[in-house]
């Protein structure tokens, strides 16, 4: 399975122009949080593959759904089997563009807020998204962060009526990646 992920990231990177300045990680972090009066749900995934070409601004992510870890094993089981159907839809992906990459790549500001646009695919459903994030130059690469909301209903994730009040209508997603030059 890890070979498939690495192949995806490398294939995506090879599709980019030859003079590109490419940065990638195989251990980025994505977490999500659902807050309701009944129960909070939080999960973390530290096996996120991401790649960024700072010449073009192209950014790709691949997230294995089964790599999300929950505090309670039963939550993890329900997440994978009943909601995101990880056997049928094993990964989520993002394929997009950072709008201000020309300024970030040339001026090398310490930290810069950026606009990120692209296609987010979860549960077999692809939607165009536009979010804010930040990029920061580090001694050994680039740190990227973003925080945004995702509605399970937008991705055809069905929540049974019996637990509908246990899961928020919108779930906060936090992305944190440290990209190293490739």
Unreliable segments (pLDDT under 50, ≥5 consecutive)?
none
Give the CATH architecture. Beta Barrel
The pLDDT mean sits at: 89
Largest sheet: 8 strands, antiparallel, barrel
Classify the fold: give the CATH topology.
Answer: Lipocalin
Rg of Cα set = 17 Å
Question: How far is it from the N-terminal to the C-terminal residue, by CA?
Answer: 22 Å
Question: What amount of the residues lies in strands?
Answer: over 45%
Order of the strands making up the biggest sheet: 1-2-3-5-6-7-8-9
How many beta-strand segments?
Answer: 9
CATH superfamily: Lipid/polyisoprenoid-binding, YceI-like
Helix content: 10-25%
Task: Name the shape in a single word.
Answer: elongated
What does this protein structure show overall?
This protein is of the alpha+beta class and about 180 residues long. The protein has a single domain (about 1-180), classed as Lipocalin (Beta Barrel), CATH 2.40.128. Helices cover about 15% and strands about 50% of the residues. The protein contains three helices and nine strands. The chain has an eight-stranded antiparallel barrel with strand order 1-2-3-5-6-7-8-9.
């Amino acid at each position: 399975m890890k070979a498939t992920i690495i192949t995806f990231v490398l294939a995506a990177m090879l599709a980019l122009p030859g003079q590109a300045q490419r940065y990638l990680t195989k251990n980025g972090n994505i977490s999500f949080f659902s807050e309701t009066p009944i129960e909070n749900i939080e999960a973390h995934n530290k096996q996120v593959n991401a790649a960024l070409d700072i010449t073009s601004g192209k950014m790709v992510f691949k997230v294995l759904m089964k790599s999300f870890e929950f505090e309670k094993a039963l939550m993890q089981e329900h997440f994978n089997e009943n909601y995101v159907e990880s056997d049928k839809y094993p990964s989520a992906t993002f394929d997009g563009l950072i709008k201000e990459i020309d300024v970030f790549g040339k001026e090398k500001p310490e930290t810069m807020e950026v606009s990120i646009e692209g296609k987010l695919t979860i549960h077999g459903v692809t939607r165009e998204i536009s979010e804010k994030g930040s990029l920061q130059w580090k001694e050994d690469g680039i740190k990227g962060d973003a925080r945004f909301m995702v509605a399970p209903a937008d991705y055809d994730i069905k929540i049974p009526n019996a637990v509908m009040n246990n899961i928020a209508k919108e779930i906060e997603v936090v992305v944190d990646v440290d990209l190293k030059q490739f």
